[in-house]
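Lab channel / #folding
Pinned by the channel admin:
"Please post every new chain as: sequence first, then the structure tokens as a reply. Keep commentary short and put observations after the output so the thread stays searchable."

First post following the new format, from NK:
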Amino acid sequence: MKLRDSPIYHERQSFWLCAKHSLNNVLQQEACTQADLERIAKVLHDMHPEETGWLKFNAHKNFLGFGDYDVNVMTAALNENECDLKWHDNRTNIEEADLSSSVGLIVHIQPEWFFRRGHWFAIKYLDQVVTAPVVPKTFVGQPRAARSEAEREERDYEAKTFEPGFWNLDSKSPHPEYIGDRDSLNIFLHDLAKKNRVHVLHVVPLKTMSVSSSST
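Reply from TO:
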């Protein structure tokens, strides 16, 4: 089974566009283009130009146009797709989070190393049985085993059937990675937090967000 035959929508990393990839991966379609996020970033910049400092750079994105969009751009893009972002309170354990109304999760990790950039990626629960290609660890990112992305795309991999569960749709991974059930998700996030500063954001339908806001 080839990677392109996978039923899971998965964008791969390009430049600093992890925000775009995370949005599309969690929505399981190309809902946002780079042009959409550039437009949104410009609108946000024009609303509060005084916040950009004397250099007048757009604080919501990379000034060279390579991406690096902030959470405000991501929130506005989700709003255009009838969704919103809800921050998980890090003072509470992730096990306590109610995911019943979540479309998915977007996670931001900031490595402890000073010179490493932060990164956004998506986690999605798929409620159906999925048959997807399994890429052996020896093939993942190994120049001798897979010399190019084109070669990885053309390689035939073993197909495996997975039960409903959470999937790691990190754009830096060459393929979607099965996490498993809720307990496995909790372990995955806890392990991630051991080496990174982690923020978990819930992608929820706009109507759910408005109801929860009005009840507080």
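NK: Confidence is low (pLDDT under 50) at residues 139-146.
TO: also worth noting, Strands lie at 83-87, 104-111, 119-126, 130-134, 158-162, 165-168, 177-180, 196-205.
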